[in-house]
Amino acid sequence: LELWHGPTCAFKDMALQILPHLLTRSLKKTADGKTAVILVATSGDTGKAALEGFKDVAGTEMIVFYPENGVSPMQKRQMNTQEGENVCVCAIHGNFDDAQTGVKKIFTDPALKAELAQHNKMFSSANSINWGRLLPQIVYYFSAYLDLVNAKKIKMGDAINVVVPTGNFGNILASYYAKRMGLPVHKFICASNSNNVLTDFIRTGTYDKKRAFYTTISPSMDILVSSNLERLLYHLCGEDTEKLTGWMNALQGGAYTVDAATADAVRALFYGGCCDDKETVEVIRNTFEKDGYLCDTHTAVAVGVYEQYLKETGDNTPAVIASTASPYKFPDSVLDAFDCEKPADPFAEAELLAKLSNTKIPAPITALRTKPVRFENTCAAADMADFVRETVRV
Description:
Blueprint: H1 13-30, E1 35-41, H2 45-54, E2 60-67, H3 73-80, E3 87-93, H4 96-107, H5 110-118, E4 121-125, H6 131-150, E5 160-165, H7 170-180, E6 185-192, H8 197-204, E7 206-208, H9 229-236, H10 241-252, E8 255-257, H11 260-269, E9 270-274, H12 277-291, H13 297-313, E10 319-321, H14 331-335, H15 346-357, H16 363-367, E11 377-380, H17 384-392
Parallel strand pairs: 1-2, 1-4, 2-3, 3-11, 5-6, 5-10, 6-9
Antiparallel strand pairs: 7-8
């Protein structure tokens, strides 16, 4: 299920083309004409998709924070060449979790919120912690199901499996909400890279972020604190908010363990698996050699974990694998599957990849080559609030 045919070649494009309209309409109704200052923490794809969706949208300003060494060169160039008078981008010294924690701290800083209010501004988010991001993604899975019915791969009412490469647990949670709305999903297959905190949680019932953080070739999944898991647990623990709050408070100390009934409910619906970088490259190579299909480094994780699931279970329920980004956003890593000498320039890498795979470079990637770099800001994670103050001039 290729979800990356939008303006930034990532699955988040559809939601982030719709969200500005939902947000600005809501602001008119509920916020007395305030300007929304939208803060985004990104591990690569969300940032560019949000910037593109919100550029020059009236009544909004946007600041995107990304880990300086935690995105691909092509993702970095996408963000740092972004057009729009209301947007700004800043690299932080740290990883995605540092950026996400920094943004959440700013959202709950009463002094900073008060400063914004004095200038008729308020904070909002374009990350998947914003329900407006998840809502449009639910549509993916109904659309894919109907495609399968129309292609006569399944009959209406047949169950399917859903396979999603995930870090922040947003896209796979959208498919879970599709099931709650009536879509017949048998199993949700949650695919992680070496940052396999979700795999371990699904298998053991313990969520433990006290572990090594890996910078991988699938950077959009380099996350140890998966914000949207809290939403799933709310439903599966019987909507017991006191119990849920206890787990989230325990996570501040590094880990929590859910009760047996909730752990069983998670395992009944979800399968967790992971692939490291070496396995990911092997999947890209094998999938291309076997099927002639070129995966990016995130989709390959999903394909690899789905193969693990098939071996473990023998479950032949028809499956939808979410392909979340174009391989041309990660040409350096995808070329590793072709055992070739790689050029140093990412655009030359993309041209070589196109030649070797007989596929076409997406137009939004090609266009980046001649775009001027606008943003070269950097700051420490601890200084993100000050950067926001200076940027929005409060």
